[in-house]
Design goal:
sulfotransferase activity, about 5% strand, Sulfotransferase_dom, Rossmann fold, about 290 residues, 4 strands, single chain
Length: about 290
């Protein structure tokens, strides 16, 4: 775990992170800011497909939908024009820190599913398979301070759910009703999409299409720019396109870890927002 913590501490430079926080977006900009492994890349693809009509001429999605906190370290100019309007950006920031003045899309996901996806994503990239157990990784996730945690992120955005510039969605609804989500996103970001454009964006955000183009969603630009700084060997894997089955986290972690996740939920979203569990939040979003 020590090596993993050291590598992640060097992932973004302090200068680059600070520059990202100072970014001032346009009112027409869209910032996609879920917590890690809660559907960020999926939503990037939806927004980019809608605004371009399905253009796939990019090496990796971060090239066309820049990551605010890491843009400087990747040599990407946040002020630059993009492939199409509206400009779109990725972030994992809470409401408190995210640059203000844009429109925001946040996807929520069951914390256990997000946790397990995060573990699988880091295994083979930031640490070798078998080096860190699921339980030990759970200790790490649960020990993160509120401002860096899943729960702190979720609570910060839930508190802003009535803002007209904020769109909240559940990962489970995206799985259940992708065409409806794509249509809602089009309206929210101001893209006048006919049925043909909606159909293309929906198809290209589907599992089969993204799996077939997995190399365009695998953080290869991030790895090329940051692996050496993190002390990571070349050739690490970080494919983001998996089946994303909802509820898998509950079946693959121990009862004790599930109980600790439930306790953390109660301390944050339960105590401060009256949400009994993730199911209550998901149902409230519809």
């Amino acid at each position: 775990m020590t090596g993993f913590l050291a590598a992640t501490a060097r992932f973004a430079t302090g200068e680059g992170y600070a520059k990202g926080l100072r970014f001032r977006p346009r009112a027409s900009d869209v910032i996609i800011s879920p917590y890690a492994k809660c559907g960020t890349t999926w939503m990037q693809q939806i927004v980019h497909g809608l605004r371009t009509g399905g253009d796939m001429a990019f090496a990796e999605i971060t090239e066309v939908v820049p990551w605010i906190e890491l843009a400087h370290d990747l040599g990407i100019d946040l002020e630059a024009e993009q492939a199409a309007e509206p400009r779109a950006f990725k972030s994992h920031l809470r409401w408190q820190e995210v640059p203000k003045g844009a429109r925001y899309i946040v996807v929520f996901r069951d914390p256990l599913d997000a946790f397990l996806s995060f573990f699988r994503f880091m295994e083979g990239w930031f640490f070798e398979r078998g080096m860190i157990s699921v339980e030990a990784f759970g200790d790490y996730v649960l020990s993160r301070p509120e401002e860096d945690s899943y729960w702190g992120h979720a609570a910060s955005w839930w508190a802003e759910r009535d803002r007209e510039e904020v769109m909240l969605l559940s990962y489970e609804r995206m799985k259940r009703d992708l065409p409806g989500v794509v249509a809602d996103v089009a309206r929210f970001i101001g893209v006048k999409a006919d049925q043909a454009r909606l159909d293309v964006a929906t198809e290209q955000a589907g599992f089969a299409f993204m799996k077939a183009h997995a190399g365009q969603f695998d953080d290869n630009l991030v790895r090329a720019a940051r692996d050496a700084a993190c002390g990571l060997p070349e050739g690490g894997a970080s494919n983001k396109v998996s089946d994303g089955k909802a509820g898998r986290g509950r079946a693959e972690v121990s009862d004790a870890l599930r109980a600790r996740f439930a306790e953390r939920w109660q301390e944050s979203l339960g105590a401060h927002h009256g949400l009994a569990d993730y199911q209550a939040l998901s149902e409230a979003l519809g």
